[in-house]
Design goal:
The chain has five helices and nine strands, in the order E-E-H-E-E-E-E-E-E-H-H-E-H-H. The chain is α+β, with helices and mostly antiparallel strands and 251 residues long. Strands 1, 2, 3, 4, 5, 6, 7, 8 and 9 form a nine-stranded antiparallel sheet that branches.
């Protein structure tokens, strides 16, 4: 059993309330930057759906069954929202806004992919009591959506992550295919669900189901490489001494 790939309605087919959705924006605007976070490749960027990416379109569904514990979907998602950064692997540092995981808020992402920095972020597209979803900005490794949710399946709660996206540009596609980027991504979400299960004292097995929804390359997305977050993050890191000197740190 899986939840819908995008949060368009509830299990009875009724539309979600408008208050659960982020308002439409042209470009992202980062407010107060949390201590320790790097605000790079987010401010002023558009959010991008899978139609604007480059590589094949993949849908990946990760699930862990919380067997043997009495916990409902709403409680699982409440904890998950509150501790979302803590449930990430060490190479993924996430910095939610002060408002937390709420519609329209920005989560800054300072991560590493195969040893290279990736400074980007996520916009909270949707959030209700039993699910929350993110949309990626331009330059992020993938163009698409990430939906985290929990649901009841015959008396047991299942926690789930479902991603639907394609690589943003040719460099990221190369990394996903030949440098282990896709496997690293899968390890990240498997790790997250294991941490969710561990929080509720469950040693759960994470199941992964992946489907290629569109195997074609979208060549119009090749120019996205100019906004590649890894390239810009590396350049930002390399020019840090010059910025430090201009700021008077060298005196």
């Amino acid at each position: 059993m899986t939840t819908p790939s995008t949060p368009e309605g509830n299990s009875k087919g009724q539309p979600r309330e408008a208050s659960f959705w982020a308002q439409r924006v042209t470009t992202l605007k980062v407010g107060e930057v949390p201590p320790g976070a790097v605000n790079l490749n987010v401010d002023g960027r558009r959010v991008v759906n899978p139609l604007l990416g480059f590589g094949p379109l993949w849908q990946k569904t990760y699930q862990v069954r919380l067997q043997g514990v009495s916990v409902g979907p709403a409680e699982v998602v409440s904890v998950w929202k509150r501790r979302f950064p803590e449930f990430q692997p060490p190479e993924n540092r996430l910095y939610p806004a002060m408002a937390g995981v709420a519609p329209g808020q920005i989560v800054l992402l300072n991560a590493s992919m195969r040893g290279l920095p990736v400074n980007s972020g996520l916009m909270v597209l949707y959030a209700d009591a039993e699910s929350f979803a993110f949309m990626t900005p331009e330059g992020c490794p993938e163009a698409g959506w990430i939906m985290c949710s929990a649901y009841d399946d015959e008396g047991e709660t299942v926690a789930q992550v479902q991603t639907q996206g394609r690589s943003n540009d040719p460099l990221f596609e190369f990394g996903f295919r030949f440098l282990g980027g896709a496997k690293q991504q899968e390890k990240i979400w498997t790790y997250v669900l294991r941490r969710v299960a561990t929080h509720f004292d469950v040693d759960g097995h994470v199941e992964l189901n992946k489907v290629c929804l569109d195997p074609s390359i979208r060549w119009a997305g090749a120019t996205n490489v100019w906004r590649n977050a890894t390239v810009r993050s590396v350049l930002y890191t390399m020019t840090a001494p010059a910025r430090w000197a201009r700021g008077g740190g060298g005196k």
